[in-house]
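Objective 1.3, modelling of assemblies. Example input:
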Amino acid sequence: MNCSDITKKYYRVQKLTHIWCPGCGHGTLMNTVIRAIDKLGLNKDDVVVVSGIGCSSRAPGYMDFNTLHTTHGRALAFATGIKMANPKLHVIVIMGDGDSSAIGGNHLIHAARRNIDITTIVFNNNIYGMTGGQYSPTTPTADFATTAPFGNIDVPFDLCKLAQGAGATFVGRATAYHAPLMQKLIEKGLQNKGFSFIEGLSLCPTYYGRKNKKGNAFNMHSYFKDNCVDLKVVQKNPEKGENKILIGEFFNGPKPEYTESYQVIVDKFKELRRD
Amino acid sequence: MFDKIEIRLSGSGGQGIILAAIILADAAIEQGINAIQTQSYGPEARGGASKAEVIINKNEINFPKVVTPNILLCLTQSSYDKYVASLDKNGILIVDECVNINMDADYKIYKLPILETAQSKLGTSMVANIISVGALYAIIGQDVISKDVMISSITHRVPPVTVNKNLDAFEEGIKLIKG
Amino acid sequence: MSNNTYKLIQGNEACVEGALAAGMRFYAGYPITPSTEIAEISAQKLPVVDGKFIQMEDEIASIAAIIGGSLAGLKSMTATSGPGFSLMQENIGYAAIAEIPCVIVNVQRGGPSTGMPTSPAQGDVMQAKWGTHGDHPAVALTPNSVQETYEYTIKAFNIAEKYRTPVILLMDETVGHMREKLQFNDSSEIEIIDRKKPTCSPEEYMAYKPDEDMIPKMASFGEGYRYHVTGLTHGEDGFPTNNNEISGKLIQRITDKIEKNIDDMSYYDEYKMEDAEIAIVAYGGVSRSAKSAVDEIRKKGIKIGLFRPITIWPFLEKQIKSVSEKVDKIYVAEMNLGQYSLEVERVACKSCTVNKINKVNGELITPQEIIDAVTGGRE
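Predicted structure (tokens):
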């Protein structure tokens, strides 16, 4: 399928263009989600895409599925209700870094703990973009933001470690530059019967890039190209991982899935209902 | 015959005071009389003061709480100390033997070995609540609620494996009044 | 359920029985006194009827989950009390603007903050109307008995489904925890309303295009309609817009669909109001004390009656106005420092005097307190 066919098939073309700034990494990441869905041949009617609030959360509006743009931080809680009510649906949640790990951090760890079959994709651009460049839980220490005018003293989250520690059964990271890897991770996440967490490192030249003298979008992509290394490489040659950003598939360890476990309880009463 | 009985049952949390009140209310509605059951409790599930109330009324019950009970049951000293002043002066006080009371009162007093009977006759203090139900039933009288209805209510409300023991406790409670 | 089935049951349990009778098949909640029994009984009963229960990580997640569940096609409910109700406010607004039917039960306890968890109060009356930000429709029903809790939980679901709006069942600890007789209705006699579904093709479907009754048809996610839902102001296609005209029309419509259909959801009860010169206005647990007080005060030869709103929101303006034109004096008795009385005053002040009877110590207002207030303590 060529690019324009995919666009016509999966995007609400009449709703484009999008709101994202020139050079933003979110469009590329959104496209990896679309391509993963296409690759797996999922029926569009069975796909639900849920988001919270922020730049990333505008993505579902452009995507031709059942789409739900919720309140800030709460996407996973809405998605949990959808998945519980109709477990046949493929539920995908797209969140930003602040959305998923600050205001929505509690929902993230509990959705992961339950291992409910939701594929969660975080577009992490290390900043609150929608509100104009405030520091988020993934802004590196010493970086600048409008609310960290003298340098950020917070210590950032490693979102993948957070999700894995909380119980996610599939975890991986890629970047807007490493789009094919991102797509592959989303495909595997969608195939995992359980809570999948994929972090997509995005770029925000407008706020994070400008505040921190990271250059333009090209420079920021080059940074990902030069500074990311796949976990598989590091496992063979640990020295190659020094001072680098790890990408790749970090964890894949199936466990009982939440809605299936609940269905076991419901089925216990099946005979009773027949009477 | 009565029009309205207001009963306050009190003791400590975990004694099954609320269940006793539920059984009485349950039996009353089964008998076709209006009943309402309420309770108040502190934050703790065990220990602390526990209070449950039942209103049995041939007419409609509006205000659901008991202000001046006709019958007051106290299984502990602290519940007696707390609630005795609220008892109707023509009412009935039922207390466990362990409670020190002021005998100089207008209301009728039954000082009964409820906790001791539970332990000695039935081997567990857990059934003190149903012994109390037996005593209350014997006092309220068969003309209000029939014995069959009481037995049915106890059977439905206590945990299934404890039905026989609780029915025995009910009989022991009746005996405390009727001898 | 046969016609003569009855049971001694708690108000909170009656709420679940009503919800199940109305067709609730999804419950998400977080434990909080004095509403917890509603979660416990839902957990027990939902899987039996092929329904779903989940205990979420907090109340924000609970209401989010029921909105999701409703969107995926199940009638959904959550229950909470003061602190949890505060946490739910943002998403109550979401359900209002996105027009997702759901029922939120608030078994009121003493507040503010942690307040008195095991004691009754009616301090959330204004919050039920104005708790979430922005202009929005509010529907809240207040039962005063176990029987009414059952019946008005069913009505709460029906209003939610019919008007595509969140409905609040505003209980109080008195009603939630008391046990009295519940007469189950024959299931064939219970009116059950379900949301309108689209019959058009997915290509023609406009998720937020209202019919003449102001209410758009609602497809469930997964039924092939693939539409967009957002908490932003949106057009009839469901997509966000900054267009001032479209935004204004939307907020007006979601408000009008309730306000202009107020007669369809105006529930109230009158007691001895025929010749009344004084009216007590009371609702929920307090209305029971008020009814006893009316009987006692009448014995003194004073012509007094009770007007009992069951629909707290939208405000029963027409009925209160008519009461005020009939009587010389209104007493509003409520377990707060004067909330519903503000609305009564607004409507009644031109026709009669409005007095307040308030109590916030965690105890139900007693009949005697109402009698004393009305008769000036003359005995």
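The domain at 6-189 of chain C is CATH 3.40.50.970 (Rossmann fold).
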